[in-house]
Amino acid sequence: MRPVWEVEVNSMMTKPADSEVISAGLVTVEGWAWSHDSVALVEISKDEGQSWIRGKVDNKEDQAWQKFTAAVDLERGVGKLITRATSESGMKQPLTGRRNHVHSITVNVK
């Protein structure tokens, strides 16, 4: 068995909730990100990863998770939001295929 020395970079959205009905316009996306070193960047995509919106990440304190927020302009319809984090050492969450792949939610924008 191999010991765990480092935690892979990861993130998850907590607001809005998955399948939540929200109003069109500027929406604040919130969540948490973590890594063995500090998280340097969190990005949100509303177009399946074609483009990314940079969020604000709180500073790391001890080994605590880091809160992030991002303002995302959403149009009416059903869509998907994806979040990914990048660590200070440059490690980025993969889009697929790993246990720490990007987190996604569905939103119903009215």
Automatic annotation (TrEMBL):
Signal peptide: none
Organism: Fusarium oxysporum f. sp. pisi HDV247
MF GO annotations: heme binding; molybdenum ion binding; molybdopterin cofactor binding; sulfite oxidase activity
Gene Ontology CC: one annotated term: mitochondrion
Example GO BP: sulfur compound metabolic process
Name of protein: Moybdenum cofactor oxidoreductase dimerisation domain-containing protein
Sequence ranges assigned to domain Moybdenum cofactor oxidoreductase dimerisation in this UniProt record: 4-100
